[in-house]
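Appendix B.2, paired examples.
Example (i):
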Amino acid sequence: MANAEQLKALLKSHMEGDDDRFFSVAMQVAAHEAKLGHGKLAQEMRTMIDEAKGRRGVGSLVSIGRSSGELVNLLEASYPKARLSDMILSDVLADQIKRVIREQRHAGRIVEHGLSPRRKLLLIGPPGTGKTLTASVLARELGLPLFQVRLNSFITMHKGETTAKLRQIFDATSQTRGIYFFDEFDAIGSQRGLTNDVGEIHRVLHCFLQMIEQDRSHSLIVVATRYPRILDHVLFRRFDDILYYDLPDKSQIAKLLTTRLAGNAVKRVKWENLADLAMGLSYAEVTRAANEALKDTLIHDRARVRIADIKAMLAERKSVSEKLDTKNE
């Protein structure tokens, strides 16, 4: 059973309305019961905690949806189902994400010792390498809603409007705990010395730096970019951790293809050989090629996905990717 200190912490967090602290202590109690050999009780407690977090997440979405003003137009709210086990990651990146999740789950213990859990993250990497999926996974693993900032509704050319909208978003981080995801942040985070910069963006970036520095909420702020070189260097100091994403290597592509198609493909497929054909593609592009091969099989009423079908779809994605790269040069 819970010890005296844990019982007092549970009561205190409940009376203060600190759900995060309450869940953290409850998970500690469940872990203690598991160590004592009370596996069934520990699992029942974990299930109850997960269900409670889920209900809280749905409630958070409702509160955002009922918000007055423009906030509902600035944030796209969802409650993702993707798990960390769904991602194919390098060992380094997987360890970084797991560390963030662990620190958040034990946030109460960390704060008690005058420390802060990681919650301000910068994700850097090419499109389709898992940055958005990471934000979704963090939301699912922590039982929190995901709020994606709609930059098209966020940035305006009218003086003061964008910074006012930014203030609304940071106010929301304190009112509703969640994952607040700024994708393609280079749109407002570019270096202040760039000649094509606009005066309003100068002000927005300065405002963002101040707000993220002053933010003391329990929400996670996740910022993603594909162009780290154009980001203002002062940004990097504002984050607790920087995660780098790369295109998948041969073994990761083979694993992704196997995961997506092994149950529906013909026998004796040499996935490593197919992975050779897909080198240079992102995770998203490989996944799309696999899905296209499976759809083509279903449309033509074939029993199994053929090797030729997979090759054709990978080649098609490779061709599209190369053309896009040429246009962007």
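Example (ii):
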Amino acid sequence: MFDLTDKAALVTGAGSGIGRAIAQRFAKAGARVHVGDLNQEAGSETVKLITDAGGQAEFVLLDVADEAAVVAASAKIGALDILVNNAGIGHVGTILQTESADMDRLYRVNVLGVFMVTKAFIGGMIERRRGSIINIASIGGIVGVRDRFAYVTTKFAVVGITKQLALDHSAEGVRCNCICPGRVETPFVQARIKEYPDPEKAYREMSATQLIGRMGQPEEIAAAAHYLASDDAALVTGASLMADGGWSVGK
């Protein structure tokens, strides 16, 4: 089930958290995984975890906000069967607490990065009339999230990109879907929690945001990506898969 044997995949931002979990899951299912990340040490660690487990992986130094770097990476990697646009960054604040530089920084990574990486690889998918593109959006791409003006703005854009790609290219054999996680206990989130005056209270409050009473785990998002990447999801395109522990139900 959900066999990815001999499929070539690129996961951006695969040095940690959700991206690392997706890369590991894909490799376990038989894919040849290109681990894209800005951090060579973290990306190489992901590769080692995969190869030590018997999987196939290689590291690709990739800044999704740098068009030249994206073009160079696409030339090195070649044709893909699966593309996961996972790399993303955040910013805390209302519009009054958000500077134009903050908006530009998030736009370049979260929106322009998805655009440039997808454009670099979708042509090969169209030529071969097969491919699965998975964008990691957010609950913040479906509903508003307090004090996350820039982040929510960019994640709504990612959901829009997903729908437009599906509309334009599904008939050419390329499916495009996105996953909208809620709170996920990644290293980034764990580090943020430690910055609060009362980390234990912050952890409980973040967990309570979701109906299931806990945060998600990176491996749970990876499971959703695994399905969307596989041929078992052949009927699924243009979808926004909510993996939010029920957060959006009450919004």
